[in-house]
Amino acid sequence: MSSVLSAVGIGTLVVLAGTIPRNMAFAANFxxxxxxxxxxxxxxxxxWCFWRYLNSAGPPEETRDFRRRSLxxxxxxxxxxxxxxxxxxxxxxxxxIALRVxxxxxxxxxxxxxxxxxxxxxxxxxLVMIGAPIAGLVEEAAFHGYMQGPIERRYGLIVAILITxxxxxxxxxxxxxxxxxxxxxxxxxxxTVTFLTNSVWPAVVLHTSGNVYSNIDLLLHGRADWQAPAAxxxxxxxxxxxxxxxxxxxxxxxxxxxxxxxxxxxxxxxxQERATNTMPSAV
Length: 283
Prior knowledge:
Elements: H1 2-31, H2 39-54, H3 64-71, H4 78-103, H5 121-155, H6 157-170, H7 180-197, H8 201-221, H9 236-239, H10 243-275
Helix pairs in contact: 1-2, 1-5, 2-5, 3-5, 4-7, 4-8, 4-10, 5-6, 5-7, 5-8, 6-7, 7-8, 7-10
């Protein structure tokens, strides 16, 4: 249990160290000189230094090996990349479809884009979109690098995903209990790719891509990615099971089946690379 608490504590510190400076810089940019997205270069420099430190650069000397192993920023083979992106991409598509299904079953909480009447749209779009890779790098380093690794090695992947997914949910201010399975599923998509490749890099790309999708959705429609489209049908309990709902369920089953097949192929690739000692080294 102490190893779990330690991993959760360190991972939480990592995500706070990466997220709080971003939030402060963006809030200041929205308030002061908002016509120019000046927070972007500041955060670029900070994130570069932050990532290098997590990956062993800088003092203290005695923690360098621990930081490198915890981050798991290792190279991935071309085949590993291909199957990682296919499996994870199908996982993200399955999540989007699943959210549409759930939206026909229960009413999910609303999240609206905050009003920023005095901030030019260019600045809003720039900061919101640059937040996608920032969150991808910081959160994957924290949750599926520093946090998942120790728990995974001691208790296995399933326990690690449940713990990291729950912590991932709790650090999001928009979290409500009904969304807990969603965050667990997100953690499973990214965490399994990291486990199979022993690298956070594919998950960083997938996470960033998912954030880009949800951020565009939020900017264009003023709602979070788990909310139903504006023209969505009523709950099935009121309308009955209609053809649209059946089509969503069929699409979900097909996508999940394809995702599981892709993950199986990824597992075979990484198993073969380990057996022949061709797993890429650290970056």
